Amino acid sequence: MLQIDRIRPSFFEASTCTHSELWLQRIDVEPGERIQIQAPSGSGKTSLTHFLYGIRKEYIGNIRYDEVDARSMDADAWADLRREKLAVVFQDMRLFAEPTLRTNFEIKRQLTVHHPESVIESWAIRLGIEHRLDTPAKLCSYGEQQRASIIRALLQPFRWLLLDEPFSHLDDANAKKAMDLILEESERQGAAILLSDLEIVPQYPRTRLLRLLA
Amino acid sequence: MKQPSFHIIKPLLLSGERSASRWFSFVGLGIGVLLLLLAQQLFIDIQALVKQTSIRKNGFDYISVTKQITNDNMGRDNRFGPADLDTLRQQPFIQGAAPLISNRFEVVATAGDQIPFASDIFLEALETDFIDTVPPSFNWQPGQPIVPLIFSSDFLEMYNVFAPSYGLPQLSMETASNVIIGLRCEGQKGAQVFRGQIVAFSDRINSLLVPKSFLDWANEALEGLPSANASRVYLKTLDANSPDLLHFLAQKNYRVNKEKTAFGRSKQILQGVVAGLGIFGILVVALALLLFSFYLQLMVARSRDNLQLLLTIGYRPDWLSKQVARRFIPVYFVVVAVALGLTQLLQYLFHQVIMYNRPELSSWLDPSVWITALVLIGLSVTTNWRMVRKLLYGIR
Q: Domains of chain A, with CATH numbers?
């Protein structure tokens, strides 16, 4: 289980977090839950994703994965968690710029070989980027890169999926296709989803809504 | 846990691969390793070459002195009396003095039936502390028919020079040790025949040495006289080239056998130079490893973004550092192997061309040099791996 235990960014005053439904609250994320975190600009939405993913630590309070305090984990423990249990789609995509999309996928897939190589092709077709598979990531549009980073996140086993504005560069039709793929794979794995966005995402069948700053 | 192949991420890491600092560091490492291995082999060679002629023992120099024979003192007794010995022992730069006492009866040596040789000889005795090679068998008690002998290796060499002219066989050290020498000792009070056997060869003492107990007994029993004043005295000193000692000996008009002292000194200097070369080699190896660490830092700095992203998507820093470090193992192996090969070639040439007549040397490298080479490979690989690891864990 993922426990977010009364955290707040250390760069926020405690008084500014009093109306938040997440900051300074105790949140237990159950398997299969679909949480939407709705957060206006500057409310710490991306910081939350980074705290949960362990790439920033400027917070007060505790985050626990299966009872293990995130602060106590070393670099190798984080690598194990990210490889086997925790997937992410960053707002800024973070693909390797020079390699092709296919290589980007393979770099992730080969870590666990959770899916066969053929899945790359079929998911790329579903999200409409199959014609870009052999194009270097830096030459792809933001929309294509966003869809690629979604595919990359789903190529691993996971129990928690963090999505930070995953559809910001997609039109509604493409967002719907991506959402379907995300839901299908999350349900198959029984994973919980934490989706953060500026607005409420209509195509996301959330089970819980948390407003970061009310 | 299954791990991906390094192949797919290799292009992400090694940008700046053709960096000059990398090649400089490899060449530097090669030179350093070569110097170090050469110094070690040379040190071993020098040990082997001068082992048999070393005059130093337990950190002391041993030199023999005689009184200078001049036209003025020719007729007098030029032997060292108790008073002379006391004066010598009192000097601060002399740590010990032992007279080389000799036989006062006649001795004729025969080489038995095998070698038709007979000659008047002399026997001498010296405190065992002053002898460079003293085997445990070098002792004698009254009633013992075999007298152990320590033979000067120079005498054996001289014998081998004139032996063919007299129709006598030349002898190796091993054969000479097996020859039983008949010693017929005759004095005023009687005669007795002993069997002498060479138990060791001395490089330092030009004499035919017997145990002091034998000479004391035989002088008394055969001639009725105690062992008396000696014409040669051995001195034990910390430094045979000390100006104080040389000044004192010159003042006393004593003559010093210094040739071997000089040899002992030059061995020390040679070893000093070679040790210096070895230390220089170690420094060059250290510098090369330092340079290589700069190259690694540069490489990690250049691919920092990619490395960071790899860690972000779940690559273990532990695994990554092993993969990066492993890439350099063959290079280190080749560098050290080339240095080892060159050292072997130089040793071969040294033995075959310069020192071709020295059986105590080998054309092949000493096993310890191989061990050093292996240790250096291990050291380079470990240093490299630790450095990569430190850099990667520093990224997060």
A: 2-211 (3.40.50.300)
